[in-house]
């Protein structure tokens, strides 16, 4: 079992815009799934992506293990609301580190590793906060293999997802020989074009990169120093946080005044952990996932999981439409539409999406137009 789990809860993904926005990103949206994690502290079968990640993290920790949450200060109310759904004992094991600014995943992980390693060499699992993974018991089995591999091989361990189609939206992991429950990684591959993805699928030995990692803190500190000093050196200078750097809300420790942290983030290079470390690490293994994994990347995928969301909808001759709105919506004589409307009362800016089913991947084009128009407040 891991001594620490780092959950990255930053980011303001736009693939589920406008429900997912800078004020309330995807990880704080709810979903409904019949095969969702057992014992999830939720109302019925609904839970947020983030709360589901917390449940996974707690499930693989040792008895005295800690759950380190890294998120921007603006998301603190959302984090506190989700953590409050867990029991007092679980919340005592959680620490929220407030990021002064977004600097991609390498800086977030470097910050977490530095914090954890101040208590000596530890075993760390890094989890994403916006995926669906089930069942929990199978994930625990795979996580245990990753734990043993990271410890025994003194290596970085990644979780690979067996591909089910020639997907172009994910990076790929190419594997070599199989050793004691895990594969030696031969290479990481960038997001491929369609023909390359088809070749990967036909050849076998290629897996989707899940973005989840396991390692010991001592090994990772060495890799950061060797491969990405421009990311890690600013964090390596940080002193241990003083007692006064913490506050407590709803039973959760919040590290919001770590002396020097703002400087470390400002000076650290903006780069992903994959580019900075994973793709260049010489000692890397992969655990092939036996659990089901879904990265919900479009409204076409998300709509069936959103369930009845309480939207006030009036229809006259409408067929096969999905509505997610916090204002009343009326549909007349239309079919196969996805309508998402936000009034702005959640802290964002009022916006509406109307898309034909099967076309919601094109939201990325809309997002780019919004950026080019200088209307980033809509995102």
Characterization of the model:
The protein has 379 residues and is an alpha/beta fold. It has 2 domains: 2-294, Spore Coat Polysaccharide Biosynthesis Protein SpsA, Chain A (Alpha-Beta Complex); 299-378, no CATH class. The chain is 30% helix and 30% strand. The protein has 12 helices and 20 strands. The chain has helices at residues 49-59, 76-83, 88-92, 104-117, 136-153, 194-203, 217-227, 229-236, 261-267, 273-276, 299-306, 363-372; strands at 2-8, 30-32, 46-48, 61-72, 94-99, 123-127, 132-134, 156-161, 172-179, 182-189, 206-216, 246-249, 252-255, 284-288, 292-294, 313-316, 322-325, 329-332, 337-342, 351-356. The strands form 5 sheets. A 5-stranded mixed β-barrel has the order 8-11-9-10-14. Strands 17-19-20 form a 3-stranded mixed sheet, covered by helices on one side. It has a two-stranded antiparallel sheet with strand order 2-3. A hairpin with a 2-residue loop joins strand 9 (172-179) and strand 10. Helix 4 packs parallel to helix 8 and helix 7 (217-227) crosses helix 8. The chain is globular and about 65 Å long. The two termini are 39 Å apart. The model is unreliable at 35-44 (pLDDT under 50).
């Amino acid at each position: 079992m891991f001594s620490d789990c780092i959950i990255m809860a930053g980011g303001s993904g736009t693939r589920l815009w406008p429900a997912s926005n800078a004020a309330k990103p995807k990880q704080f949206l709810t979903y409904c799934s019949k095969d969702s994690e057992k014992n999830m502290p939720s109302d019925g079968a609904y839970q947020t992506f983030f709360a589901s990640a917390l449940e996974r993290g707690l499930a693989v920790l040792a008895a005295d293990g800690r759950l380190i949450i890294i998120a921007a200060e603006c998301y603190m109310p959302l984090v506190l609301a989700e953590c409050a759904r867990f029991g007092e004992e679980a919340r005592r094991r959680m620490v929220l580190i407030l990021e002064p600014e977004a600097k991609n995943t390498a800086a977030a992980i470097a910050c977490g590793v530095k914090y954890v390693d101040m208590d000596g060499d530890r075993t760390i699992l890094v989890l994403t906060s916006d995926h669906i993974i089930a069942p929990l018991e199978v994930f625990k089995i795979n996580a245990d293999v990753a734990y043993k591999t990271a410890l025994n091989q003194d290596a970085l361990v990644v979780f690979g997802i067996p591909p089910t189609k020639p997907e172009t939206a994910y990076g790929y992991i190419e594997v070599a020989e199989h050793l004691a429950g895990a594969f030696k990684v031969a290479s990481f591959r960038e997001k491929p074009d369609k023909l390359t993805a088809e070749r990967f699928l036909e050849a076998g030995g290629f897996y989707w990169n899940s973005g989840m990692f396991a390692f010991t803190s001592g090994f990772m500190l060495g890799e950061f120093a060797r491969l990405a000093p421009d990311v890690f050196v600013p964090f390596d200078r940080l002193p241990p946080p003083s007692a006064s750097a913490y506050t407590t809300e709803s039973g959760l420790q919040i590290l919001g005044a770590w002396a020097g942290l703002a400087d470390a983030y400002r000076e650290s290079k903006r780069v992903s952990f994959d580019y900075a470390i994973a793709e260049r690490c010489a000692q890397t293994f992969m655990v092939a996932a036996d659990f089901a994994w879904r990265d919900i990347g479009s409204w076409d995928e998300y709509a069936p999981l959103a369930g009845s969301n309480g939207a006030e909808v009036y229809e006259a001759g409408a067929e096969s439409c999905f509505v997610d709105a916090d204002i009343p919506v009326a549909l007349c004589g239309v079919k196969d539409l996805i309508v998402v409307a936000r009034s702005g009362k959640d802290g964002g800016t009022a916006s509406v999406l109307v898309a034909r089913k099967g076309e919601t991947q094109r939201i990325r084009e809309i997002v780019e137009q919004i950026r080019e128009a200088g209307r980033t407040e809509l995102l």
